[in-house]
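Whether sequence alone determines local backbone shape is best considered at the level of individual chains. When preparing material for the folding task, we compiled for one chain both its residues and its backbone structure tokens. The sequence in question and its structure tokens are set out directly beneath this paragraph.
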Amino acid sequence: MVEKRTIVFITLVITVWASITSGFAAYYYLEQARYQEQLHNQQKLLDTITRNYDVSANRWNLLSGDYGVLLGDYQFFSGDDYSSLMSRYEALLYNLQENYTSTLNAFPELNTTYNALLSNFQTLNEKSTVTKEEFGSLLDDFYTLLTTLAKKELEVYVGELGVINVSLCIDYGNQTTEWYNKTSTVAGTTLFDLTRKIAAVEYSYWATMEPGHIFLNSINNHAEGYWVWYYWDETKGDWIFGPVGCDAWILENNGIYKWVCIQ
């Protein structure tokens, strides 16, 4: 009878252990799947930025190449009347406007600069003779505007795709909390990066711990206990314990995160 009860107890223990183990495995799998999804979304973001960069670089290369050819012809021009180069300059202006329409519309001051340059060209084009200095001034103004437009375009791409807003709570475990709401940071930032950005931290590096190798020892000189982190799950409406090291968790746009000091 004793042996039978022992066998039943052992069977029960094994069943419970198997249930806990399978539950933990399922949780671990779901969190790893979430982490992999993060990496996938981040890669998509980087791919989009790369594509936009390639398009912008190609646009710049074509226009600056055409400008360079015209500049070379201008520098080696042997006559006194440069009006024969005006039609090619007009084509440059047209291509500039066609390629940077959205950027010109987004920045009124640049659109004003373009219209002023176009007006100067039209006024000069009505003259019977165009001097070297006059045409050289047009070329200088064109190149200045081209470089400014190219820079602004890249800033827009990176600004739209590369900046996210997140909120972070620091709970010191002594009824003191600090919130950093709608903090702007660069896409690809980890929780560790953000925490170091807004607070003074001390940490340890554990080479054998992964994903992530960072363990926070203190935040803002508070080291009474140990620090753990959570993220807010909108679907579940609950705080979820951080499944990886803070240096391996990539922040999501509008994500909410929390550090808690366990006393």
In short: Helices lie at 2-75, 86-99, 101-106, 108-125, 132-162, 191-198. Residues 193 and 247 are 7 Å apart (CA to CA). The first helix runs from residue 2 to 75. Confidence is low (pLDDT under 50) at residues 16-24.
